[in-house]
Design goal:
By secondary structure, this protein is α/β, with parallel strands linked by helices. Helices cover 39% and strands 13% of the residues. It has 2 domains: 115 residues, Alpha-Beta Complex (Aspartate Aminotransferase, domain 1); 250 residues, Aspartate Aminotransferase, domain 2 (3-Layer(aba) Sandwich), CATH 3.40.640.
Length: 389
């Protein structure tokens, strides 16, 4: 992996030492130019290319299906993860009463708020030094547990869960497995079949390099048969039975699509979403093994430097299989917020999450970025001239 070549694709590298891809990954130049081209086409031709764009989106789903080991008909975009989880909650309530859902204590709120709002009983597994063992998750499940909902990678600490082992254990117990892959995919590929995942969501603006294009909402055919969409729009209706492109009848019986198309309720910004395939091809050309090695190399450098500097690392780091692109540390609650602003003034971009300083390493980060970050932290500590917790 030639990091110098990769960096040339990303204009953000010209100004910033950017460690905030876990919030939003920056666009590479060629995706920016594609956006401009697509919207120029909208200006010049309106929706004349709409059918062509629909075919391009199907090609994107087919590409994703191969990457994720599922079928293209199982994949759609929805606007965001909160909507995806709300749909699941409503579907469950349509089918069951008196059930509970198990999740993790440090989950991002889009995984939990939709269910709590619907008064669904949520059981949260406490962390042990920001780790979650398979056994601790299973211990919170009982006969009333309908589903386990968790992130592949935790947003505030970067802890990466063994989703294959957990998925196999949940299948044995006939418990649904719902995975939010937002902080992992596509840099950490996923095999939906081997992990026995019933539903996978992924807000691809984190690591998809295409901006805010929505959330992948992937459901198996078995899941949809048991839990069909709880709401519908004009685009959800199966028009094959009516020999028409758009269902226009009133007060007549209709069916929604058997495929994930049932969750595609109406019009959406297709011009943005069709760019994901090109970005995924770019990542594949770099090589997933190369990317993994680069991420581990960069986080290892940071870990070694932080240990020498005496900085307390929050993220679990002892097991490489539990590491991800995210590494969090703390200088103490008061100093953490100050550090964020201090580094920002030096064009070093990190984030404050769950009162920790969160660093997210991407494919374009290099040793110069890491050196700037570590020097910035040392400079801050000297300027504060006081001990941290």
């Amino acid at each position: 992996m030639n990091i110098d070549i990769v960096r040339k694709y990303f204009p953000v590298c010209k100004k910033y030492h950017y460690f905030q891809s876990a919030g939003l990954s920056p666009l590479p130049e060629f995706i920016l130019q594609k956006y401009i081209l697509n919207y120029t086409q909208l200006a010049n031709e309106g929706d004349f290319q709409w059918q062509t764009d629909i075919l391009k989106l199907q090609e994107t789903y087919q590409y994703l299906a191969k990457l994720l080991h599922t079928d293209a008909e199982n994949i759609v975009f929805v606007e965001n993860n909160s909507l995806a989880m709300s749909l699941l909650g409503l579907s469950f309530l349509n089918k069951h009463k008196g059930f509970n859902i198990v999740s993790l204590e440090e989950e991002f709120p889009s995984n939990t708020v939709p269910f709590e709002y619907l008064n669904i009983e949520m059981r949260y597994v406490p962390h042990l030094n920001h780790r979650y063992t398979i056994s601790s998750i299973l211990e919170h499940c009982d006969k009333q547990t309908l589903a386990v909902i968790c992130s592949y990678v935790q947003y505030s600490t970067g802890f990466r869960l063994d989703i294959q082992t957990l998925g196999n254990k949940l299948k044995e117990r006939n418990i649904l497995f719902i995975v939010n892959a937002t902080q992992a995919f596509p840099l950490f590929p996923i095999n939906i079949k081997e992990c026995n995942i019933d539903v996978l969501t992924c807000s691809v603006h984190k690591w998809g390099f295409c901006g805010h294009i929505g959330t992948l909402f992937i459901t198996t055919s078995n899941f949809r048969r048991k839990y069909p969409t709880p709401i519908a729009g004009w685009f959800s209706v199966n028009t094959n039975q009516h020999n028409d492109i758009i269902y226009t009848k009133k007060n007549c019986t209709f069916n929604v699509w058997d495929t994930a198309q049932q969750y595609q309720f109406g019009s959406y910004n297709i011009k943005n979403r069709i760019l994901l395939k090109e970005m995924l091809e770019f990542i594949e050309n770099i090589g997933y093994n190369n990317i993994y090695s680069h991420i581990i190399y960069c986080t290892t450098l940071l870990i070694e430097r932080f240990k020498k500097m005496g900085i307390p690392i929050i993220s679990p780091i002892n097991n490489e299989n539990e590491r991800s692109c995210i590494l969090s540390f703390t200088l103490g609650t008061e100093n953490n917020a100050k550090l964020i602003k201090y580094l920002e003034n030096k064009n070093i971009i990190v984030a404050l999450r769950n009162n920790f300083v969160r660093i997210s390493v991407n494919i374009f980060n290099n040793e110069t970025d890491i050196e700037a970050l570590c020097n910035g932290i040392q400079s801050f500590l000297k300027s504060e001239a006081k001990a941290f917790i």
